[in-house]
Specification:
Blueprint (H helix, E strand, L loop, with lengths): L1 H9 L3 E2 L2 H6 L3 H7 L1 E2 L3 H18 L1 H23 L15 E5 L4 H11 L5 E6 L4 H25 L4 E5 L11 H10 L2 E4 L10 H20 L7 E7 L12 E3 L13 H15 L7 E6 L1 E3 L15 H12 L1 E3 L3 E2 L1 E3 H13 L7 E4 L5 E2 H6 L9 E3 L1 H11 L6 H10 L8 H5 L2 E3 L2 H9 L9 H14 L3
Parallel strand pairs: 3-4, 3-6, 4-5, 6-7, 7-9, 8-17, 9-14, 10-13, 11-16
Antiparallel strand pairs: 1-2, 12-15
Helix pairs in contact: 4-14, 6-7, 6-12, 9-10, 11-15, 11-18
The protein binds NADP nicotinamide-adenine-dinucleotide phosphate.
Pfam family, one: NAD_binding_4
InterPro entries: FAR_NAD-bd (IPR013120), NAD(P)-bd_dom_sf (IPR036291)
Protein name: Thioester reductase (TE) domain-containing protein
Length: about 475
């Protein structure tokens, strides 16, 4: 975070990217990458504004071309989805023993609970720690944090749960050969939920945590010759990448990750991990990918994500609360963590589905502005504004040192450092999850409305982030 603050400060007068700092960690090398641009932020905002006006001038023609192109692609998508018409979701797989990574994480903790809710299920959780006991104690603390002392104790004490100290970065997953061998022999499914989800850092770290780790787990799944384990990668909808420059694209579950990998190291490493899983479809009977949207508070209530400050959506919310404005043309798809875990378990356990990519997101679109302004305590504190007014606010914030963090977050989060308004490019790509929603619907799954308590808690926490 300190590195980001440094780069954000430099960006006021120089053109540079956060990745420059990681790619050129020696100060002298980093300095060579800086291109002086006095008054850089005012210029950036002025360029974004003129790009926005140009886009608006072309809007009628843009919308007509967009509607035409997307309608055609939608038709082709629906035709492909017809292959799933007979799926009714009643036939379930019996995995017996599953290996779960990332159980100390937000989604992983809920996925662990979900897997154990199947009375026939047994789970081995691979958790970082000095030894099995330490790993178990740490997982126990996380579970108590999310599910309360009693709920956490029940889960960690469940005799069907085994905790193994391991590290996905290390050969053999950091397990002893005996433990590794026993897992390779016994596990029927791998649920790979662990990831380095930082939004900045050295690429080598993302590669080790997200790509090499996936390769090691795929090897483990393939170890039982002739009878491999199923593999379920928890991925992110961000892998769908940037919108095309001059055409329109409906991104569906059938789309592989783009040929050009993303600049963002987290996203890039998740794209590479997906490629590995797709390539493993020859060796494994079922190598599936679950691309997840913005994970927020649980629909059933409970505490917010313990490492909430690392969550990109939360940081952006916090920035808007700090600035006192929120754009009125952005949408959010809020995916409740407990419902995401349930959806993944349902899709993974459906015997009729193999080698699939799913889009696990709430199909319900809320506007970001409604989400923020309708939360308890937010009325009057944050105003919904058009994009021009948002740019006005950002421009004023340049001269307000106390807005530094919120300003930098918004410039980065909305891709404004590029000098372009996000709408023109963003609207060239439409993401769909219709097929996944239909499959889930046939298994009785639906997304509940936004729970008011979770919304209020999240915005209260957001109000705190940039005010320190
Ligand atoms: N949160 C979201 O909004 C969101 C959205 C889309 C997709 N996803 C995906 O959902 C998954 C879970 O995300 P999350 O937000 O729940 O993450 P999180 O809370 O940050 O948890 C990450 C988990 O990965 C583990 N991990 C990381 N590196 C590891 C390593 N080398 N060895 C062993 N364990 C390691 C962490 O273990 P430690 O406790 O030891 O650090 C932790 O359990 C990720 O695959 C992510 O890409 C999340």
């Amino acid at each position: 975070m300190r590195a980001i603050a440094v780069v954000n400060r430099l960006r006021r007068e120089f053109a540079c990217r956060i990745n420059d700092l990681y790619e050129a960690p020696v100060l002298a090398d980093f300095a060579l990458r800086l291109r002086p641009q006095p008054d850089h932020l005012h210029r950036v905002i002025a360029t974004v504004r003129s790009h926005w006006w140009d886009y608006q001038a072309t809007l009628p023609a843009f919308d007509a071309a967009r509607d035409r192109a997307l309608a055609e692609q939608q038709q082709a998508y629906e035709a492909r989805n017809a292959a799933y018409a007979a799926f009714d979701g009643t036939e379930r797989r019996d995995y017996g023993e599953a290996l779960l990574t990332g159980a100390t994480g937000y989604l992983g903790a809920y996925l662990l609970r979900e897997l154990l809710s199947d009375p026939a299920g047994r789970v081995t959780a691979l958790v970082r720690g000095g030894d099995d006991e330490a790993a178990q104690a740490r997982l126990g603390r996380v579970l108590a944090g999310y599910f309360g002392a009693a709920g956490g104790a029940t889960l960690i004490g469940d005799p069907r749960l085994t905790v193994r100290a391991g590290d996905l970065r290390r050969d053999g997953l950091g397990l002893t050969p005996t433990v590794h061998g026993a897992l390779a022999e016994g596990v029927r499914a791998v649920f790979h939920c662990a990831a380095n989800v930082n939004h900045f850092g050295h690429y080598a770290e993302f590669h080790a945590d997200n790509v090499e780790a996936t390769r090691r787990l795929l090897d483990l799944a393939a170890a039982r010759r002739g009878d491999p384990a199923d593999f379920h990668l928890i991925s992110t909808l961000s892998v769908t990448g940037k919108a095309p420059e001059d055409s329109f694209k409906l991104v569906t579950e059938y789309d592989a990750v783009p040929d050009t990998l993303d600049e963002n190291y987290y996203v890039r490493s998740k794209q590479e991990a997906e490629r590995l899983v797709t390539a493993a479809r020859g060796d494994l009977r079922n190598a599936s990918i679950h691309r997840v949207g913005n994970v927020v508070f649980a629909a059933e209530g409970g505490p917010l994500q313990l490492n909430l400050r690392d969550n990109a959506f939360f940081r952006q919310l916090a920035a808007f609360v700090r600035l006192g404005v929120v754009p009125d043309d952005s949408h959010v798809w809020l995916c409740h963590v407990d419902r995401v875990a349930r959806a993944v378990a349902l899709l993974a356990g459906a015997a009729g589905l193999a080698n699939e990519t799913h889009h696990v997101e709430n199909h319900r679109r809320d506007t970001l502005a409604d989400f923020v302004t309708s939360a308890a305590g937010m009325a009057g504190a944050v105003r919904a504004v058009g994009f021009d007014a948002l740019l006005d606010r950002l421009e004023r914030a340049i001269a307000e040192p106390e807005m530094d963090g919120a300003l930098a977050q918004t410039l980065e989060g909305f891709g404004l450092y590029s000098g372009r308004s996000p709408q023109a490019r963003g609207r060239r790509q439409e993401l769909t999850s219709e097929r996944t929603q239909a499959l889930l619907g046939r298994m009785g799954f639906g997304w509940p409305p936004v729970p008011r308590a979770g919304q209020a808690d999240m915005l209260r926490a957001a109000a705190d982030l940039f005010s320190r």
